[in-house]
Amino acid sequence: MTKTSTASAPPSMSDLPSLRDGILCDILLGPPPSGLLTDLDERIRTGFNYISLSMAGDIEATPAAVYARLAKIRHDLSGQSDKIVLVDGVAGIRAAKKSNKLAIDFHFQGSEAVGRDLANVGAFYKLGVRWMLMAYNFQNNVGTGCIEAEKNDIGLSQFGKDLVAEMNRVGMLVDCSHSGYRTTMDAMSLSTKPCIFSHSNARALFDHPRNIRDDQIKLLAQTRGVIGINGVGAFMGEPREVSLDTVVRHIEYIAELIGPEHIALGLDYMPPAFCQYILDLAKGDAPGMFAMPAQLPWGFMEPAHTPMLLSKLLKKGYPVETVRGIMGENFLRVASEVWQ
User: Fold this and answer.
1) 59 band by pLDDT with thresholds 50, 70 and 90
2) b or e along 143-182 (b: 16 or more beta carbons within 10 Å of the residue's beta carbon)?
3) Spelled out in words, what is the top-level CATH class assigned to the domain 24-338?
4) What is the predicted pLDDT for the residue at 8?
5) Which residues pair with 133 in a beta bridge?
6) Where are the beta strands (DSSP E) in the chain?
7) Contact 228, 133 (CB under 8 A)
8) Distance between CA atoms of 260 and 47, rounded to whole angstroms?
9) Is 10 exposed, middle or buried, given 0-12, 13-18 or 19+ CB atoms closer than 10 A?
10) What angle is formed at CA 128 by the lines to CA 195 and CA 61, rounded to 5 degrees?
11) What one-character DSSP code corresponds to residue 313?
12) Cβ distance 203 to 160 under 8 Å?
């Protein structure tokens, strides 16, 4: 739920003439257990042009299960070709914008889907997986997750170092969100290509294990990458109800630290039914497993309020081209450099 100053329906991108021709990207959407097409229809009405879907996490992920999941969702989405198109690169995203369709590709929240076989990286890339986290909250074969790192952060393993090199080779973005401090610093130092934090905010503004420190932010900029600002209230000190002004503060802080050209949007929105699913999955330990409140409701910036967020940036004096960068062009620049 998001605080707004009006009871009327949120605007769409068509209500912002100076941004109407820009490409609006959300680089992080976790598909709910049901109702994905409804969620995507809502994004289309708001004016989103590109979304990346999470196809695997580190919890109970195996290569075989993930291959099957990818096959099914590719089949299901191919039946929506009147409004959705699966894309392989930036040219496809721009073409989808021109044809008024929503461009979709995939990513993994964690690296357990690879198993211990680096050959899976290239195979998943051919199936549309365009980036992958090192670890999701806890230790895996690759590195340490951000929750476990609060007590024991051992950084990238040798397999993790090999994984980063293979991701660089095939063109898959190295994503540092959800990973521990040392693991992210190792990954960014080793990567020869721009890295991303697909959905992370500034720890200087709110001390939460899912947020990232200033030196992580600065090293990310040195890789020429981007940080996707998320709208998860628990990570901003607003666990029940999110203010757009708080989201703006995270954008402004990172923009002042490294420049707005390193900012994107990775909202990580979950509708109520999905929140309940995650809470049930945690079996009473949502704080321990996901660093989320023990009880619902959880607050999020709603994707439908993205035009309002961008409008706030314009009113604060951000140039139109800078806002276009945040809404999508910054991410597309990085993708163009990495994807093959």
Assistant:
1) confident
2) bbbbbbbeeebebbbebbbebbebbbebbbbbbbbbbbbe
3) alpha beta
4) 63
5) 175
6) 2-3, 25-29, 50-57, 84-86, 102-109, 129-133, 173-175, 195-197, 226-229, 242-243, 263-265
7) no
8) 22
9) middle
10) 80
11) H
12) no
Q: Are 200 and 212 in contact (CB under 8 A)?
A: yes
**pLDDT at 146 > cutoff 60:** yes
Cα dist from 311 to 15, 32, 121, 321, whole Å: 10, 28, 39, 13
User: What pLDDT does residue 10 have?
Assistant: 75
Query: What is the per-residue pLDDT across 88-142, written as a single tens digit (0 to 9) for each?
Result: 999 999 999 999 999 999 999 999 999 999 999 999 999 999 999 999 999 999 9
The residue ranges of every structural domain in the chain are 24-338
What distance in Å separates the CA atoms of residue 188 and residue 59, rounded to the nearest whole number?
24
**Residue 316 CA from chain centroid, whole number:** 25
**What is the predicted pLDDT for the residue at 2?**
53
Tokens for 60?
């109970």
Cα(223)–Cα(225) distance, integer angstroms = 5
> Both tokens of residue 75?
């089949």
State pTM to two decimals.
Answer: 0.95
Give the Å distances, CA to CA, from 104 to 3, 50, 191, 338. 29, 6, 25, 17
Average pLDDT over residues 75-91: 97
Smallest Cα–Cα separation from 214: which of 163, 253, 164? 253
